[in-house]
Amino acid sequence: MKGRPIRVLEATGRGEHRGAVHGAAFYSEIRRYSAERLRLASNGSWAGRPATSEDALDLASQMLDAHRAYDADLYEEMTALAAATNLTIEEVLIVSGFTDFVDFVRAKGSNTVPEEDDCTAVIVPDDLAGGAGFLAQTWDMHDTATEHVVLLRVEPETDPAALVFSTVGCLGQIGLNEAGIALGINNLTASNGKAGVTWPFVVRKALKQTTIGAALGCILEADLAGAHNYLLFDSEGNGFNVEAMVGYRAVSKLEGRPLIHTNHALDDKSRSVEAERPPDLLASSEARLTRAEKVLADRSGGVDAEHLMALTRDSEAICRRSEPPHHTESAGAVIMRPQSKQLWASWGLPSENDFEEFRL
Fold first, then answer.
1. CA–CA–CA angle 33, 208, 82 (5° rounding)
2. Domain parsing of the chain, residue ranges
3. Among 29, 99, 105, which residue's Cα sits nearest to residue 61?
4. Spatial CA neighbour of 7 closest among 154, 156, 147, 175
5. Residue 129 and residue 304: Cα distance in Å, rounded?
6. Is the pTM of this model over 0.90?
7. Is residue 119 within 8 Å of 140, Cβ to Cβ?
8. CATH code reported for the domain at 1-360
9. Is residue 146 within 8 Å of 2, Cβ to Cβ?
10. In this structure, is the dihedral angle defined by the CA atoms of residues 86, 92, 95 and 96, taken in order, positive or negative?
11. What tens digit of pLDDT does each residue of 45-82 get?
12. What's the rounded Cα separation, in Å, for the pair 356 and 360?
């Protein structure tokens, strides 16, 4: 195997994680990651304005009621994780829902352009993939997050089991459940963030569903804190892309060609509430979208998992290496095939690490 394997943890849905790391070492890692996320949320680079740690934690406390109202079981899981790690629930909320949280921080008084740029994602319809399509994406983030990437096997008592790509301390970021529902994401920036629900809660609640309609409803009905793009795909070949802005949703349905999304809004109304982006990051997002469109168009004869692995490793635009001033890199990648309930995951730069296959 090339590179480092992804760590796999067993998650019960009650804040308990077991597996490759556990106990004191695991909880210490979550505390380190939490401290780094709080630093980034406070230093002005990601939120667009500086804030003290106390200010950030106070804003996080204003978001707790929205999370409890949206899904009480996930709120209990977040509370249990906070207790296990000796962190406050506000600190766990920040480490989990960081990019939506900074939308809220920004909205409380910033005219500065933020540093945000994350992920290239595609849905390939069944007809272009031998009858069983794929949802695939990179996960790009500040390079301090890479070491903390894990894969969770979530096995709740009543809801569908799921494989969930995540980072330590985060409830979940990208996943596939045993009902054949896959969910991916791209970060977007909101100019109107609020004390609402952060995106990992939306991901995990959607993965608790048994139909794509119910999963879509979780996205459409959430009282969101910030902006995110969600991609949904199921074992029947149904797919949706949702630009989920605060107070607005733009929904596109999968038709005969791939749905592709990066980190800038495509819908006119979404753009009207999108925060301004640094020119180089906007150019990166546009280049990744164009490159993914070209690579998939060149695969008119069909797409398989190996082709999508190559897409995530593309050095022209998609597989991103950390460099100043933003220090964003491809911290991992995921490929999901809902019909066969297969998931391939790579830790770190896909160009330097193998994909491992997992099944539900």
1. 30
2. 1-360
3. 105
4. 147
5. 6
6. yes
7. yes
8. 3.60.60.10
9. no
10. positive
11. 554 556 678 888 999 999 999 999 999 999 999 999 99
12. 14
